[in-house]
Amino acid sequence: SALNLLLGNMFGPLGATIGTGSVSVVHSMGGGNWTIDVTETDVGGTGFSGIFAALDAAPGSLTDGKIDGTFSIVNGGVRVTVPEPASMALVGLGLAGMAALRRRKAA
Question: How far apart, in whole angstroms, are the C-alpha atoms of residue 10 and residue 28?
Answer without folding.
Answer: 24
